Amino acid sequence: MSGHYEAVDGNEAAVRVAYALSEVIAIYPITPSSPMGELADAWAAAGRMNLWGSVPGVVEMQSEGGAAGALHGALTTGSLATTFTSSQGLLLMIPNMYKIAGELTPVVIHVAARSLATHALSIFGDHSDVMAARATGFALLASSSVQEAMDLALVAHASTLESRVPFLHFFDGFRTSHEIQKIEVLDDSDVRALVDEGSVGAHRARGLSPDHPAIRGTAQNPDVFFQAREAANPFYLACPDVVQAAMDRLGARTGRSYQLFDYVGSPEADRIVVMMCSGAGAVEEAVEELNRRGERVGLVKVRLYRPFSARHFLRALPTTARSIAVLDRTKEPGSAGEPLYLDVVAALAEGPDREAAVPGDTRRPRVIGGRYGLASKEFTPAMAAAVFAELLKDRPKNHFTVGIADDVTGTSLAWDRAFTTEPPDTVRAVFYGLGSDGTVGANKNTIKIIAEKTDNFAQGYFVYDSKKSGSMTVSHLRFGTHPIRSTYLIDRADFVACHQESFLETVDVLGLADEKAVFLLNTSAPPQDVWARLPREIQETILAKTIRVFAIDAYGVAQEAGLGGLINTVMQTCFFALSRVLPLEQALAAIKDAIRKTYGRKSEQMVEMNLRAVDATLERLREVPVPAAASSAALPRREPVPMQASDFVRRVLGEI
Question: Where are the alpha helices (DSSP H) in 217-358?
């Protein structure tokens, strides 16, 4: 095992394993899975070898249907192959997926799960796409974090070769695919230890070849089709144990233990939530906090969703469970319930009686279902706490929603927005930037510096507008001494940076600032004039929360250094200077080292310009004086729109 830590996102975590174990990679880009194909293509172009010392053939097709066809063809010849997709792209692969599964062909498709277009298109994440593929015969393996995206990618590849059941390995689009985490990466020795060479050889031997002719893809009549279809049953019955065995081997090697259904919480929990993927991080934090307060709650994290093993699921449930809430990140209109909910109900109805919590008590737990997080809607520990509170009721709401206010059909649960589980020793920083101004790139470098230069754990998540370049981006960064499971946006920040002064008039940039936070503003105004230029609402927040304000003319520094409008190096230097996450000298050395690595391949001139920007930044960074006697009542008020103005001016232009 490597014991080596790096900061990578979920897409890179998965594709590192997929690339190492593939000879053919058929790709077609679709958000948010595109980076997996892009990385594979770049690595192949650079001559990077797979586990067997050859460079995989990476081919971009003209659609996802073409990619699935190429994948199926490569597998039929006995090659090891993979692909990556999301959303409508996965739907275009379904016809080939039925054939691949029907022929019991080992393969793994990696999916950054995303909404399907229904009443509207959304590029953001939920489980609509993978749930639409659950009848294909593919096993479905779910990862809930960046670390799991790498670990379970390897479990999927090892398990498909041994079981002959094809796998769809999925994780939440954007929330996991684009989240950067400091993780312990697997090396080639870890991959080699889990993959059975005998299974690889058996797959190759089954490939179509003129040296040993065989027939495939026939048509069958009613006399034999049914029997042949049922003949696959033993492979699916054996699959859960094959996956668990692979998980056990991974745990023995790395110390990271996984179960098909992982339980966390009180061993005597009376209320349980069942769910899969990234929302589990928020629920786990809520479970720990509620149990600390004396409640008895727990969480079952579903990893192997298909084949659904009722035996393993029932074993994971505490015998004390009396109420269960199953959370699905998808909606199936007209169904009796969402997919995971129906599976849990069936498992409890058909499975063997569990050992009763009270002798002679054979009651089964009450089960309710709910929806959350469609199209990347926020899901927080406060919302998870609301679900546990609902389970306490004599008649809890079934088929509920959480995270929205449903004023049409009244399905939604209310939640306490003040409920928080953020650990006090975690540094939380929020950055408001403009797409293409370098803010996101700078913050990615910041995470990598902290991950590589300290023992701290680091997490970065970036909120993009669907209009992408030229629109606002918000970077959410966390750093701390403990692993970070907070799979939701920061709502109380120690550090807030506004990289575009115009945002002050349109965005409540200090709405997330905590008491005594630090606020960094990129402005062309001299420090002594900044206070007067701030909108009144910003001034009131600064005074109410005792926020320290710093300013820098980042565009001025960048232009003087020859960088034009790229302010990423300037603002990154300011962050390290003000946050003190690292000692300043160490931080500056790390920034300059990152500059040499990042820009050294472009030109020495680009390196020198960025180094000049770093040195000039500290000279130009200044604290903004906040009037000591200032109070909210003493601040100048903006004149309201005169009442004699026309109705259009007052109600439309005035509001604007």
Answer: 225-230, 233-254, 279-292, 310-316, 339-350
| Token couple for 224 | 């034999």
Reduced to 3 states (helix: H, G, I; strand: E, B; else coil), residue 380 is: coil
Q: Phi and psi (nearest 5°) for 354?
A: -80, 160
| Prior bond of 359 cis (ω within 30°) | no
Q: SS3 of 365, please? A: coil
Structure tokens at 429: 């920083």
pLDDT digits (tens, 9 = 90+) for 519-564: 999 999 998 999 999 999 999 999 999 999 999 999 999 999 988 8
Amino acid at 125: G
- Fill in the DSSP letter of residue 633: G
Per-residue three-class SS string for 396-432: CCCCEEECCCCCCCCCEECCCCCCCCCCCCCEEEEEE
Residue-wise pLDDT for 418-469, tens only, equals: 999 988 889 999 999 987 777 888 899 899 898 888 889 999 999 987 665 5
pLDDT of residue 580: 85
Q: Give the whole-angstrom CA distance, residue 510 versus residue 536.
A: 12
Asked if residue 624 lies in contact with residue 550, where contact means CB atoms within 8 angstroms, the answer is yes
Say if residues 236 and 307 touch (Cβ distance below 8 Å). yes
Return d(Cα 490, Cα 512) in angstroms, integer: 7
Burial class (CB in 10 A: 0-12, 13-18, 19+), 400: buried
Separation of alpha carbons 529 and 525, rounded Å:
6
pTM of the model: 0.92
* 646 vs 655: CA distance, rounded Å: 13
Residues in CB range of 294: below 8 A, 6 or more apart: none
Kindly report the three-state secondary structure assignment for every residue of 15-52. Answer: HHHHHHCCCEEEECCCCCCHHHHHHHHHHHHCCCCCCC
**Residue 363, pLDDT score:** 64
